[in-house]
Structure formats: structure tokens, C-alpha cells
Amino acid sequence: MKVAKYIIALFLTILAGNVIAADGQTQPSVTYISPEAIYFDGGLYAGIGVGDTVAFIRDRQTVAVAIVTKAADMAAAAELCQQKYPVKVGDRAALLADVPRLTAPMATMASSTTISAAATEPQKPRPQKPSQLKGTLSIENFYRKDMTDSELDRTQPGIRTRLSVTNVGGTDLTLRLRHRTRLYHRARSLYTDQETNEWVHQVYEFGLFHEVEDARTEWAIGRVLSPYVRGVGYVDGGYLAHQLNPHFKLGLAGGTVPDRLTSEPDFDRRKFGLFASWETGTYSTQRLAFTAAVSTEYDKQTVSRDFLYFQTTYSKKGLMSLYQSVEIDLNRGWRYKSAGERFTFTNYYANATVNLTSTASLFASYDARKNIRYIELMDTPDSLFNDDVHQGVRAGFNWRPTQRLYIRANGGIRFREGEFDNNRFVSGTIRINRFPAPRHSVTMSMHVTETHFTTGYRPMLSYRFPVSRKMILNLTGSGYIYKTGSKSTKYYYGDISTHYNFGRRYYLSANVRQYFDSKLESIELRTELGIRL
Description:
Largest sheet: 22 strands, antiparallel, barrel
Helix content: under 10%
Number of domains: 4
Number of helices: 3
Radius of gyration: 25 Å
Distance between the termini: 26 Å
Number of strands: 29
Oligomer: single chain
Shape: globular
């Protein structure tokens, strides 16, 4: 409860302070940035689909343009094709056709190399900007009515925040908070001593950030996620990065590790990491980047894991993008006794996308990531620790022959050792936009998985249509069919979901799912009522 009281007090302080709210726009915003893509909310409900061109906007200026590669109901991912400044979490996302005239045209944007060089020149004093409160605050609830004899009814009300205060005190600092509080109410306990009412408070991010385009040094303190040192993850500490020249950057990150289940501070576990990165070129033409890092995690005085991390990315606009990463464990102490060798290639991952035409692309990936032994798994026997569970290959294609038709297919193999057969999977998706009328769409997909013991099928049919200008309804029918020998198991469900924007800033999302099988017969209701600040 101390965490909840602390968050509530912080929240009231922010709201009571001299904070000027954003201009009330309801465009989607960037939620996460990875080396391969930029993720933002909105997605299909906001009218954004695969193949669309979106602009990322900050302070009423276009900072980058990207092509949408993945789109779900309320989220999407895009690959950069042009940028003036690096995209940041919280930047607004909008279809390029919807960007106001006042935004800077991409044709006038300089390359990132030029911008980085300009950062070394003396900067004129900038006018002080007022603080702004941005983000979302929502109340959510999950309710499940069990229609079988199991009596597994449950309710999960909660509060979710994703907030940032920019220009804190007229400075370049940003305060960020991401948190979720839930009450798990169960009709009955599932095991001995389980509480039927349980509060769970999770603070994912709470820190002060200094990230400015023209600054050579950036840093953050609090509960933060380092954007550079892979493997460090969330820490109660901070990170520091310094740009030595337009191409080369050095940095470090470290702190204690929050408890993975409760998110409470855990001062017995600590993580540290150092990194160096080199980058040349731009997303608008050709870009090559390389990162090397070393990371260490301690549990009290015992090393839980040491490893090296290397990452390489290459992209050429309109032609291809390549990515690969590898982790090499440095085994000492109990890890050396367990592995029997000083160095272990723990993780390797690579993917590539090649654009055959402006409407068709091929993609492939190789995944050799393995389960990792941390100190809590030190005594787990090898028979229960499958270090090849992730290893496999995947390939497929995306094709958009017309603006109305989108086709995606992929398949792959997950390798198994010993007497078990390899796992195989294949899936295909077809989406028809503006069918049977404008703003309507129909999506059909089939997923098939084959293991040594079971063959599974998951067919799905979805129909999306507008109820009003601000409200979208999505109807879905799907199921799970498993065949083990001569026995078949089938589960079917129907799904209705909607997203409604009202009052410029407010939104309501709802989802109702009905399972029809006698063993799983139940109704689930998810709702979220929120405000965009």
C-alpha cells in the first residue's frame, strides 16, 4: 500500500502544480522504440493500417516519417524511412495526409549526420517553454463469469497511468510515470492460502529524463529502462550516455533490480552495464549501426550472470533492412560448474526484410535464443531446463497488390533435440479494406501448428465497421482445434470489441467474449475508460 499512496500523492502533486495541459489533440502517440520499429497506439481503430505512411510530430513539427508494417486494433508498428530528429516516446503519430500544413515538410529535412555535427556548434539561448502534462489516465476492469461447475468467477478493477511532464520547471527535464494498480477478486481460491482479494501495484517506470536533440549528453534517474545497454532492463538507478563525435557514443547504466512479480524495490539484486555505439548514414538513404555492451547482474555478493552483447543493423531506404544480435555468457563461479565452459553463445537472433517492389516484401529470421540460467535456476536439473526451446527459423511475405487488399503468409520450424520431432507452424492472413463499404474491412486468417504429439488449428474471421464517425465495432469468430492421436478437442468463441472517442480527449474501449465449449463456457468483459492529456 505504500507504493499506491506514494503514486497517488505524486499524481495529486502533478495535477495541482502549474502544469499546462496539451492542446487536446487525440492522435495516437509513440509508446515504445526498438531497433527494428517504432510502436504507437491507435492502430486500426484510428484508421491506420499496414502500408500507410505516418508522420511523427513533436511541438507541431514533423520529426520523422515511417511506413506501417504491423497494425492491431489499438496498436501499430512502423519502420522509419525519413527523419529529421530521433523519434521519442510520447511523439504524436498521424497519417501523412492528416498532418497540418504548419508542420515542416520532409523535403527540407537535413540528414542526421548534419544535425549531429550542428549539435557541436554554439547554441543560441532558447525561450523557456511551459511545462506540459501528456499521456493517458484510465480506469479499467476485467470481469469473467464462469458458466461451468468450476466457480472460477473473477473481477479485476484497476487504474493505469502513462504520464509525462515535459519541461519540468522550465528546464529540458521530463518526468515520466507508467504504473498499474489492480485488485484481483476471485470467487474462490485456486490453491491453499491464496487470498480471494489481492491488491497488486506495479510501477514500470518512474524517473527524471534529460533527452534533448542538440545535447551531447543524455541521462535518466529513477526506475528507468536503458535505451542502449541491452540486458540491463528496468533498474532503480539510471543511465548516462555521451556523444564523443557525430558517430560515436559511450554510456553506462545500472542500479538495483525491481522484483519481477511485485515491482517492489529489491536491494539484494543489482545490474550494471557499459556500452559503445557507432552509427553512420541516415534512415532516409542508407544507415549502418553497431553496438557493443557488457552487462553484469549480482544477487547479493554472487554473480547471477555476466555477458557480452553485440548488435548490428543495416538499412537502405526502399530496398532492405537487416538486424542481428548475439550474447556471449562469461561463465565464472557456479555458472562455470554448471556449463562446464568459460564462454557460451547464449543468444543469437537475426532477421532480414527485402522489398521486392513498393507493394511486396519478403522477410526471414533465425532465432537461436536460449533459456538462461540465473542464480534462482542454479539447482534446476538439465532435464527440466531446455536450452533450445526458442531455436528455429521463420520466413514469409507481405503483399499489397491494391489499396484494398493485403496478404501475409509465413511459416517456420522450431528445432527440438532428442527423439522429439521438430515443431512446425504456418499461418496466413487476408484483409480486404473498404469492403463491403468504405471504412469497412474483412480479415480472414488460419494458423496451424504441429508438434510431436499434437496438431492445432486456429481459424479466425473478423469484420470491422464504423457505427459512427468516432466509433468502430469489430466482430470476430474464432476457435482452437487440437488433434492428439484419434482424440480431438475444440474450443470456439465469439468476440465483440469497440473503441469510442468522445469529448476530444476521452475514449472508451470495450470487449465482450463468449466461449461456447462446455468445458470453458464463460463470458468475459473488458472495459477501459480513459482521458488523453
